[in-house]
Amino acid sequence: MGKYSYIKEEAYEGNLLLPKLNLVLFTWGNVSVADHKEGVFAIKPSGVPYDKLTIESMVIVDFEGEVIEGNLRPSSDTPTHAVLYQHWNDVNSIVHTHSTYATAWAQSQLDIPIFGTTHADHTTSDIPCAPPMSDEMIKGDYEYQTGFQILNILKEKKLNHKEMEMVLVGNHAPFTWGESAIKAVYNSAVLENVAKMAYLTRQINPKAPKLKDALINKHYERKHGANAYYGQK
Amino acid sequence: MGKYSYIKEEAYEGNLLLPKLNLVLFTWGNVSVADHKEGVFAIKPSGVPYDKLTIESMVIVDFEGEVIEGNLRPSSDTPTHAVLYQHWNDVNSIVHTHSTYATAWAQSQLDIPIFGTTHADHTTSDIPCAPPMSDEMIKGDYEYQTGFQILNILKEKKLNHKEMEMVLVGNHAPFTWGESAIKAVYNSAVLENVAKMAYLTRQINPKAPKLKDALINKHYERKHGANAYYGQK
Amino acid sequence: MGKYSYIKEEAYEGNLLLPKLNLVLFTWGNVSVADHKEGVFAIKPSGVPYDKLTIESMVIVDFEGEVIEGNLRPSSDTPTHAVLYQHWNDVNSIVHTHSTYATAWAQSQLDIPIFGTTHADHTTSDIPCAPPMSDEMIKGDYEYQTGFQILNILKEKKLNHKEMEMVLVGNHAPFTWGESAIKAVYNSAVLENVAKMAYLTRQINPKAPKLKDALINKHYERKHGANAYYGQK
Amino acid sequence: MGKYSYIKEEAYEGNLLLPKLNLVLFTWGNVSVADHKEGVFAIKPSGVPYDKLTIESMVIVDFEGEVIEGNLRPSSDTPTHAVLYQHWNDVNSIVHTHSTYATAWAQSQLDIPIFGTTHADHTTSDIPCAPPMSDEMIKGDYEYQTGFQILNILKEKKLNHKEMEMVLVGNHAPFTWGESAIKAVYNSAVLENVAKMAYLTRQINPKAPKLKDALINKHYERKHGANAYYGQK
Predict the structure, then answer these.
(1) pLDDT at A23
(2) Edge to edge, what strands does the sheet with D67-69 contain?
(3) Among residues 120-179 of chain A, which lie with CB inside 8 Å of chain D?
(4) Among residues D121, D141, D142, D144, which one is catalytic?
(5) D68: exposed, middle or buried (C-beta count within 10 Å: 0-12, 13-18, 19+)?
(6) What count of other Cβ atoms lies within 10 Å of the Cβ of residue C31?
(7) Is B230 known to be catalytic?
(8) Which of B57, B172, B75, B174 is nearest to B127 (CA)?
(9) What CA–CA distance (Å, rounded) separates D34 from D48?
(10) Using CA atoms, how far apart are residues A3 and D16, in angstroms rounded to an integer?
(11) 8 Å CB contact between D105 and D38
């Protein structure tokens, strides 16, 4: 077992959760896990079906996106993960999927409005949708620029990546992250569920009001505040 | 086996039904079972996945919401359950979920209209959606006040909790109850199904009329009236 | 084994198909199988979950709806089945469900338009939705009158029950039938699928035209005409 | 084992994938696999359920649609497959299904707009919907003419069958193809997924813009271009 076996195993386990939670069709998603001390992350090899993955097939890449260890090509989204790890030393795992409802919102180029406590239990704002990038950026290093698209939309919306752990990339699909692979994949499933509920809410009542501030704060605080009382200590 | 083993077992079995009936994602729902003679109820511990639950992990709480027995924190919704048991001595089980279609109606802040016999087989009125609570109530004892929100909407709509065993809490999600855990969970599944059918009905025909009174009464009576002939004697 | 064992077994197998094909929640559907020579049919007992059914639990009823054999109450919809068997001596099985999309159309009180060949492979007309019955009929023998509602809508639309083996009862839910339990349940699944596709078609294109006559006839003839070439000889 | 055993086995495996990927109800779909050197293809027998199929039950047909080997009738869609193989000597497998969302778009008689990268990863244009065929063609050799409908819509839209491996036949349902059965069935699943996402996108935002050209080209090139970097070498 090599020196990166721990992150390879966590990335492997995280990737296997994607089909289990119905977040991917075929190979359309990837999970990475970083070791910030070593300046590397483990990521799914490109185009390999989940049921053919092994711990050893995970690819080790540095924060410039260069392969350090592994015989397979890393996910084509690797530069996006690399940019985010470069900027966020407190994020240990990143997930990308094309889950159906979240992707439909991304294709709609609309933020997901905060309509209820299911949303507020996880974050206090609308989930932002980054606008499509400029033609120059697309023709350049596309996946690398996708990382900056995510950083920029958070900056523009004055959101901190520890408070908002999910983003839609306009015309494309969602990215989520967290302190571990389990948490980052959990966020992808939350996002898909919140996206479906928001879609249905607007179909039922096109004038549905957003959640009021007092409720937003209450639900977030009870799960994430200093006096959080959700879950076990 | 302690003195509360019977309600702990029923609460445990009821909680396991939630994922089986596709009513919950992760830990987003809880079932409690009361013993009115002892003035206590057993409830799911907070934030514990359903596949990690054991009968012994159920928490025993009194009708003030104080823990009587158990090493884990009870569900954060415990005060809501406690208020309802205080007021309803003929209700033995309460269920809370964030099931998708029922939650979308709650987020829409609309009652679910009675469109068909599937609905009328269970209750004779629209399923009420309580308006969001005032900011003062939210900042106070929020989950405790949620119990009063439920009591108040039933009072306002002149509905008896034995005739209407399900309510939407506006911006939040559904609560259902019944004479046993199986019946209360059954009501959550009925609500989700009726919510989906009502959503589709309005999409197909925005002017769909409600069920007429003669049909409402007929369907309810054949299942719940003095001369009920649905099911076995 | 009694003299009705053959129809009891077929009714039992037919009922088990309902949950397998996702056409029912809990006990919300029933299948019957008739023996026209004996003037009786076997039907699901009322309110019994599918996984508790046995061949012996099927109830034998005559075409007046009177129980001939069996210890349990027959389905509350028994008089509807009885009326139809009285009038249709070439129908051997009848199915009633509350399947989601078909029921939403019934609640919408709209016929399901013939939009494509999936529909035309099974019948050449819109699937009719019977209007809600009069208050007098509801207060009388409701389930018996539901049988006449079905007979009347077919008559009004000039449809033969051998050409149109499915009907929506307005505000209520679908009934289907066929020469065997397998065929009648097949028709329930076809109806649910066609109902979902028609719903989606109108959401995508509210002005979607109906299938033209030449295509309707072609698809129906290739499966059901004198020179049918679908399936094995 | 006969001389066609290789294509019979591949067709058999391909047909079994259809229910596995939830693309068919009952027998509503078929996969064929061609051997262009021999001028024949293996196709599913008509109306036989997937769980009753065997390798030996696959029917061998020539490119005129005449049965060469096999005891069962081939799929009623056989002439459509034959016409396409006649014209496309670089296509080895064709798939026809009535998958729900793709069929709803076909019934809507609308092309599926290219809204996102999930679509662009597979093809650079809207997925075309062929208009219903003329009455004369329907009354003639219908399934044979369906093949020409597909050839004509591609010609009209100036699309090459190697770049656009999926088409909707108006009022009917989708056809897809590819270099192998696995690839052709993969395309059917991609189409169903893209059709669902496009439906949701337009429901969420009726004015959702199509994907811009720079993104279309980038996503397609990274998977299919000369310097493709998606997947393994």
Answers:
(1) 98
(2) D67-69, D59-62, D40-43, D29-35, D93-97, D174-178, D166-169, D129-130
(3) 132, 135, 138-139, 142, 171-173
(4) D121
(5) middle
(6) 30
(7) yes
(8) B174
(9) 20
(10) 43
(11) no
- The sign of the torsion formed by the CA atoms of D44, D48, D53, D55 equals negative
- The minimal CB distance from D197 to the residues A73, A104, A142 is found for A104
Touching partners of D (3+ C-beta pairs < 8 Å): A, C
Q: Report the alpha-carbon distance of residue D33 to residue B13 in Å, rounded.
A: 50
Beta bridge partners of C109: none
Residue D230 annotated in active site: yes
- For D105-140, write each residue's pLDDT tens digit: 999 999 999 999 999 999 999 999 999 889 988 888
* Residue whose C-alpha is closest to residue B49's, from A189, A223, A232, A233: A232
List pLDDT tens digits, range B106-140.
999 999 999 999 999 999 999 999 998 899 888 88
**CB spacing of C98 vs B115 below 8 angstroms:** no
Q: What is the pLDDT of residue C1?
A: 57
**Span B1-7, mean pLDDT?**
87
DSSP code, position C91: -
Taking residues C26-54, report their average pLDDT.
Answer: 97
Higher pLDDT, A138 or B16: B16
Q: How many angstroms away from the CA of D195 is the closest CA of chain C?
A: 11
Under 8 Å between Cβ of D232 and A45: yes
CA atoms of B5 and A65, how far apart (whole Å): 56
Map out the domains of chain C with their CATH numbers: 5-224 (3.40.225.10)
CB D46 within 8 A of CB D73: yes
CB D115 within 8 A of CB D211: yes
The owner of tokens 């907070």 is B46
Note whether D117 contacts A172, CB cutoff 8 Å.
Answer: yes
By the 8 A CB rule, do D96 and D18 touch? no
Asked if D107 reaches chain A (Cβ–Cβ under 8 Å), the answer is: no
Instruction: Assess D107–C contact: CB distance below 8 Å, yes or no.
Output: yes
pLDDT at residue number C99: 98
∠ CA A80-A60-A51, nearest 5°, is 90
Contact C197 D103 (CB under 8 A): yes
Is the minimum CB–CB distance between C116 and chain D shorter than 8 Å? Answer: yes
> Considering only alpha carbons, which residue of chain D is nearest residue A146?
D215
Share of chain C above pLDDT 90, in %: 86
Q: In what order do the strands lie in the sheet with B29-35?
A: B67-69, B59-62, B40-43, B29-35, B93-97, B174-178, B166-169, B129-130
For chain A, list residues with pLDDT below 50.
none
Contact (CB, 8 A) for C124 and C216 = yes
**Which pLDDT value is given to residue B160?**
96
Identify all chain A residues contacting B100, using CB atoms and an 8 Å cutoff. Answer: 193, 196-197, 200
- DSSP code string of C101-134: HHHHHHHHT--B---SHHHHTT-SSPBPEEPPPP
| B45 φ/ψ sector (left φ>0, alpha ψ -120 to 50, else beta) | beta
pLDDT range class, residue D218, cuts 50, 70, 90: confident
Q: How many CA atoms lie within 13 A of A8 on its CB side?
A: 19
